[in-house]
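Duplicate of #3305? Posting structure anyway:
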């Protein structure tokens, strides 16, 4: 025991604090990067869905079925009717 033992726990605690802070900063940076990536992919997917919907509408208008409801609206309406039927039973 050469006198360094009294300072060693304090230094060890300070080193551990710095290590944990750096680790948390790295984790926060990685989390932010993943979060940004997810948001970007969701935005891209939304744009692709909008493009697909527009293409479907264009095809439907070319076929002359512009007045009929979209398949999505029909499926929502049917599922709503099924829920009403279930509620009355």
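Output from current build:
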């Amino acid at each position: 025991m050469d006198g360094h033992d009294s300072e060693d726990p304090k230094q060890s605690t300070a080193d551990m604090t710095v290590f944990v802070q750096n680790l948390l900063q790295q984790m926060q940076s990685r989390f932010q990067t993943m979060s940004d990536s997810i948001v970007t992919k969701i935005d891209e997917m939304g744009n692709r869905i909008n493009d697909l919907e527009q293409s479907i509408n264009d095809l439907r208008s070319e076929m002359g079925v512009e007045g009929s409801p979209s398949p999505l609206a029909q499926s929502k309406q049917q599922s709503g009717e099924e829920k009403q039927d279930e509620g009355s039973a």
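Confirmed duplicate; merging threads. The radius of gyration is 30 Å. Residues 1-5 have pLDDT under 50 and may be disordered.
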